[in-house]
Write a structure and sequence with these properties.
With about 500 residues, the protein is mainly beta. The protein has three domains: about 50-265, Single-stranded right-handed beta-helix, Pectin lyase-like (Pectate Lyase C-like, 3 Solenoid), CATH 2.160.20.10; about 270-420, no CATH class; about 425-504, no CATH class. The chain has helices spanning about 1-20, 70-80, 165-175, 430-435, 465-470, and strands at about 50-55, 60-65, 85-90, 90-95, 100, 105-110, 110-115, 125-130, 135-140, 140-145, 150-155, 155-160, 190-195, 195-200, 205, 215, 220-225, 225-230, 245, 250-255, 260, 265-270, 285-290, 295, 300-305, 310-315, 320-330, 340-360, 375-395, 405, 410-415, 445, 450-455, 475-480, 490-495. The strands form three sheets. The protein has a 30-stranded parallel β-sheet that branches. The chain has a three-stranded antiparallel β-sheet with strand order 33-35-34, with no helix packed on it. It has a two-stranded antiparallel ribbon with strand order 8-9. A hairpin with a 6-residue loop joins strand 34 and strand 35 (about 490-495). The longest helix has 18 residues, at about 1-20. Residues about 1-20 and about 430-504 have low confidence and may be disordered.
Length: about 500
């Protein structure tokens, strides 16, 4: 089975690499992408420091007994001796929360499984970060704080053993409809905080009790060639098992990962609340690249929110989707000033529910009085070289008085969906809506369903055609569109059917 998965991942990587178009060399705001992002080499055991094989220190291959203390003693010994790597050999080892100290890394050999306890009592209560706030809560299975250079690598498995936590969560939801994630009392799989130059490479991460990976205030982090799984069908599904949560981090590379989880794939966080920008425990997300990944069931390739207030320079590219809910999802909280800008999705293929979508997000809504509260905005978002089937609607950018939709562009988009509506009239900043001249930048856009267009030079002669063929108009703006027949560029009128807007 594991060999099959490895072959599949290799095939995916080869396929994506062969089909990918030339990548952009700059972030969406125009700043160069650092050469740091180009280094995607894996990690070898020999390069991780002096090995400390846990079975050499009294830890036994037994999936039925808790060995937290003995494994932690090996970590402490490694730290006291100047650092090295904790090696988990083939076998299954049951443990509660472990704390990796500076200089100590983790290597999982092939057929090795570090398995989390399914009893919350085996996880320490610590000061940590969850759902956009700093609080006392249960530690993750693997924890590292102020640990520059922390590395997890190998061909083995981190198993969160989360099925009892899933059962408890869904049972609680039946009794308390509005119970939060925090009230369900369950651990994350990996939590890394306040650390730079982190690398997680090659391993399998399955059945996390809660979020699978949570990075908080980290810089220069690479997640490479991982298999990340939680159950998404049958009972019990793994609630809130986000694959990778980026909480106020800078310079993040997620590459070559296979993802199937019962919530967000890659999720940007950083804080929430009316005064989110006044709280030093919160932080923006900057310079995030997600590339060459394969997403199955997941809430989104990249999700902005719901605990995010500031994200800039985010790229998802050369990714495949197979049943994913969204390529880009923007969760907009009316109780939080949010700014999401400089976002690019390019060279993506597959099947999604939605391509790009905004949602008002009022879960656990708590707006305070604030006279100087900044207005929320989504701005400078580009989708380029996208070929997907959308099972509901590719484009769902819903306007709201709570936020502004700024500049969006779509280039070489080949989409099928049941609706075929792309209402660009909602785009543009509040100032532009109030009278400033605004040229909507939608270029090389092709559709296969319910898209009507014609050359401008024919417009005057075809007024009757418009009146006869379109009863309702939502957008009537000039764009550069590459036709699917000749692939030559024409200036055309883009006219979209929308049942709620009347033709004047």
């Amino acid at each position: 089975m594991k060999q099959t998965i490895c072959i599949l991942l290799s095939a995916i990587a080869i396929s994506l690499g062969c089909s990918a178009k030339k990548q952009t060399s700059t972030f969406p705001d125009g700043t160069p992408i650092s050469s740091w992002f180009a280094d995607t080499t894996g990690v070898e055991l020999k390069d991780m420091g002096k090995p400390y094989i846990i079975t050499d220190y009294g830890v036994v291959n037994d999936s039925t007994i808790i060995q937290t203390q003995k494994i932690q003693e090996v970590i402490d010994r490694c730290h006291a001796n100047g650092g090295g790597v904790i090696v988990v050999p083939a076998g299954t080892y049951l443990t509660g929360s472990l704390f990796f100290k500076p200089g100590c890394n983790l290597y999982l050999e092939e057929n090795a499984t570090l398995k989390g306890s399914d009893a919350i009592t085996h996880y320490q209560i610590v000061k940590t970060r969850l759902e956009g706030q700093t609080l006392d809560y249960f530690a993750a299975l693997i924890n590292a704080d102020h640990h520059d250079g922390f590395t997890i690598a190998g061909k083995g498995t981190l198993n969160g053993n989360g099925h009892k936590f899933y059962d408890e969560f869904w049972l609680r939801r039946k009794v308390i409809k509005k119970c939060t994630n925090l009230e369900a009392l369950r651990p994350r799989l990996v939590y890394i905080s306040n650390s730079n130059d982190v690398k997680v490479s090659g391993i399998r991460m399955v059945n996390s009790g809660f979020w699978t990976n949570h990075l908080y205030k980290c810089k220069r982090v690479k997640y490479l060639n991982l298999y990340i799984y939680a159950p998404t069908s049958g009972y019990p599904k793994g609630p809130s098992t986000d694959a990778i949560d980026i909480d106020g981090c800078e310079d993040m590379l997620i590459r070559g990962c296979w993802v199937n989880v019962n919530d967000d794939g890659v999720c940007l966080k950083g804080g929430k609340g009316t005064f989110v920008d006044k709280d030093s425990t919160n932080a923006p997300c900057r310079n995030v690249i997600v590339e060459n990944c394969y997403f199955k069931k997941a809430g989104g390739g990249v999700t902005f929110g719901s605990e995010c207030y500031d994200a800039k320079n985010v790229i998802i590219r050369d990714c495949q989707f197979n049943g994913t809910s969204n390529i880009l999802l923007f969760k907009m909280r009316p109780d939080t000033p949010q700014r999401y800008e400089d976002v690019l999705a390019e060279n993506c293929t597959g099947i999604v529910t939605f391509g790009i979508r905004t949602r008002i997000w009022t879960q656990f809504y708590d707006k305070k009085d604030r006279d100087d509260m900044p207005h929320s905005v989504i701005n400078n978002v580009k989708m380029k070289n996208i070929k997907v089937k959308s099972t509901k609607q590719f484009y769902t950018m819903i306007p709201s008085e709570n936020y502004d939709l700024g500049s969006f562009s779509f280039e070489n988009i080949d989409v099928t969906d049941p609706v075929g509506i792309m209402d660009t009239s909602v785009l543009g900043s509040s100032e532009e809506k109030n009278g400033t001249l605004f040229s909507k930048n939608v270029s090389a856009f092709t559709r296969r369903t319910r898209l009507r267009y014609m050359p401008i030079k024919q417009q005057s002669a075809n007024t009757t055609w418009i009146n006869n063929n379109l009863a309702h108009i939502s957008t009537h703006s000039t764009f550069h569109v590459k036709t699917s027949l000749s692939m030559s560029t024409h200036i055309i009128k883009y006219i979209t059917v929308h049942p709620k807007m009347q033709l004047n």
